[in-house]
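Sequence and structure are kept together here, with a separate record for every protein. An example record follows, reproduced without changes.
>
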Amino acid sequence: MQGIRARVAAIDRGVLRAEGAVVAILVAVMTAIIFAQVVFRYVLSSPLVWSEELARYLFVWITMVGAGAAVHLGQHYGLDILAKLLPSPLQKLAGFLASVLIGASAVTLIWQGLKEAAGAMNHAASSVEVPMVWFYAAIPIGGALMLWHVLARMVTLGFGASALSAHGAAHAD
C-alpha cells in the first residue's frame, strides 16, 4: 500500500507543479494584455477591442486551475474550529465528510461544466472569434483537478485527513 501512496503522492506533486506553471503563464499573458490595453487606450488613443474579453476568459482559467491547486494546498476557506473541539475519531469523520463535500462540489463542476461546454460548441467569443468551448472547458477541467486532489489526499493521507490542511501539513494515520 505504501508503494501506491508514494506513486499517487508523486503524481499529485507533478499535477500541482503543472497547475502552478499554467497559472503563472496565464497571469503573465493576462497582465501583458491588460498592460497593452492601457498603452493602446491612453497613449495611442486606439483601444484594443478584444483585450477585455480575452483577459476575462483568462481570469476564469486562472481561477479554475488555481482552485485545484488550492485544494491540494488546503487554501480554501473553511471553518474548522468546531472540528478541532471534537475527539480524534470524530475529527477524522469530519475530515472525511469535508472531503466528500469538496469532491461532490468538484463532480458538480465537472458535470455542469461539460454540459455548458457542449452547449457552447457552436458559439464563438464576440471579439476574439475563438470557439466558446475553449473558455467553458475551464469549468470541468478545474473540477477534475479539484477532484483529483481530494482523491489523492484520501489515498496518501487516509480518509480522515483534514480537507483544510495542505497535503504536506497533514499526517497519515
Q: What stands out?
A: The chain has a mean pLDDT of 86. The two ends are 13 Å apart (CA to CA).
